[in-house]
Amino acid sequence: MKYLxxxxxxxxxxxxxxxxxxxxxxxxxxxxxxxxxxxxxxxVVLAAFAGGLVVGALGMLPGWxxxxxAAAQVPAxxxxxxxxxxxxxxxxxxxxxxxxxxxxxxxxxxGL
Length: 112
Prior knowledge:
Order of helices and strands: HEEHH
Mean pLDDT: 78
Distance between the termini: 30 Å
Structural class: mainly alpha
Shape: elongated
Oligomer: single chain
């Protein structure tokens, strides 16, 4: 399996390398007010890809912050249960304890 993954990575690399070699001619990107940028097509595509990554990550930041704030408040809301006094005598083991929905931990979405 490890060799198959290396083979896949090598195939992707050589495909992108061939794309870069085949697109070395200049491209012109026209901006506002008569300004323009002249660069090899590969750099233009790379810049567009990098710009898309930056815009996408910035668009996701508010959601990340909201989920992190919600996850940070979960232990604070359940903190009073952790500081409850422990009884000195053990409880009788007559019946197994029942589990309710409030005893289960809060499910964190998106792995945050």
